[in-house]
Amino acid sequence: MHQTHLGGRSFSAAGAVGGGASFEPFVGSRVGSPIPDTNGLGWPGKGTLARINSTPAETLAREQKLADAVRTLLECIGEDPDREGLKKTPERYAKALLWMTKGYAERLPDVIGNAIFAEDHEEMVIVRDIDVYSLCEHHMVPFVGKVSSEADVVSIGYIPNKFVLGLSKLARIAETFSRRLQVQERLTKQIAMAIDEAIRPMGVAVVIEATHQCMTMRGVQKPGAATITSAMLGAFRRSDKTRAEFLSLIRSQRAT
Question: Is the residue at 36 inside a domain?
């Protein structure tokens, strides 16, 4: 059993290959780390620690403060927050917004847990068409998916380097970063760099395809316009052939 670290917190990499697999512990606070914090939060915002360390009383106070702000918002747009249909809206929206941004309250070590396994598999591992939901940080309206559902669609691939990550954890990492105020470009990079930081694979590739409500319901009002972003690290960035194989696999049979 091998121990590894994220943000100074350790967890295990199980099933050592031939009893001799080695793994350099990763620590989010090391120089040049793509996860520059010692709490395993991954690109924390100014208020992230305050939220994640809140007591139950502080959490309730935060929710009430947000509800009061929503009440003010309703008044500012010309509504009556005391009318029947809106009486509970501030509290409902406060709870909904905190849930939609729950990624701020999740630590990556807790997301990954003990799901790093020693394994000699050296071929590409891909999980595609992961549905995630996010909010644009510019207008706080949703990213809405383009390909197979009403969600953003994320495809993730990596080439192991003696260690693999539990498949569900790829989706969980994507979920953690998407449940924050985001821009699609940064979300794509954060998912890739978090996986790279966690298991040091030979390469990581992430592609996201989505439509943005800030382009469809306001502004230029262009429904159906899709935004595609990619992040290619390691072998996927260096090798045209490797990158092409990944892109071919995530597109295969999608029409069916």
Answer: no
Q: What angle do CA 162, 128, 107 make, to 5 degrees?
A: 65
Same domain flag for 158 and 124: yes
- pLDDT tens readout for residues 107-160: 999 999 999 999 999 999 999 989 888 998 888 887 654 433 344 588 999 999
CB atoms within 10 A of CB 21: 16
Q: Alpha-carbon dihedral of residues 121, 189, 250, 23, nearest 10 degrees?
A: 0
76-92 tens-digit pLDDT? 999 999 999 999 999 99
Domain stop point among 35, 69, 103: 103
Looking at the DSSP bridge assignments, the partners of residue 127 are: 156
Catalytic residues: 136-139, 184, 212, 214
Q: What are the distances in angstroms from CA 212 to CA 138, 209, 219, 225? A: 11, 10, 11, 8
Could you tell me if 86 and 157 lie in one domain? Answer: no
Domain CATH for 94? 1.10.286.10
- pLDDT of the residue at 151: 46
Q: What mean pLDDT is predicted for residues 159-168?
A: 96
Total Cβ atoms within 10 A of residue 42: 27
183 and 223 housed in the same domain: yes
In this prediction the pTM is 0.82
Determine, yes or no, domain membership for 80.
Answer: yes
Both tokens of 83, joined, read 């009318």
Q: Domain range spanning residue 176?
A: 119-251
Residue 20 is assigned to a structural domain of this protein: no
Per-residue pLDDT, 72: 98
